[in-house]
Design goal:
It is built from three helices and two strands; from the N terminus they run αββαα. By secondary structure, it is mostly helical. It has one domain. It is elongated.
């Protein structure tokens, strides 16, 4: 009999899908010649791929929460919004 789908199960599946996507694309991203500026003004400016920036920001959010598990998808999506928003603002300037 099929298992009842719950919000937790759905989030776990989405998290697994995101993790697979990230793992699958990390090698491709590192090989990409096109990079973008890092959005942090408190650190030296250097070029890094967008997905790497998102990954780093998601980890920062995880640490800010006290390394509480179970929020991987939320952290990733929040980081993605922040990084994409930074890129859109930089392109408009």
């Amino acid at each position: 009999m099929a298992e009842k789908r719950t919000k937790t199960n759905r989030l776990e599946r989405q998290t697994e899908q995101l993790e697979k996507r990230v793992e699958r694309h990390l090698d491709d991203i590192e090989k990409e010649p096109s990079s973008i500026l890092a959005p942090r003004s408190d650190k030296p400016t250097f070029l890094i791929p967008m997905e790497r920036q998102i990954q780093q920001r998601a980890y920062e959010l995880y640490e800010q929460r006290g390394r509480a598990d179970g929020h991987e998808l939320e952290d990733w999506l929040q980081a993605e919004c922040e990084i994409m928003g930074t890129q859109a603002n930089a392109a408009a300037a």
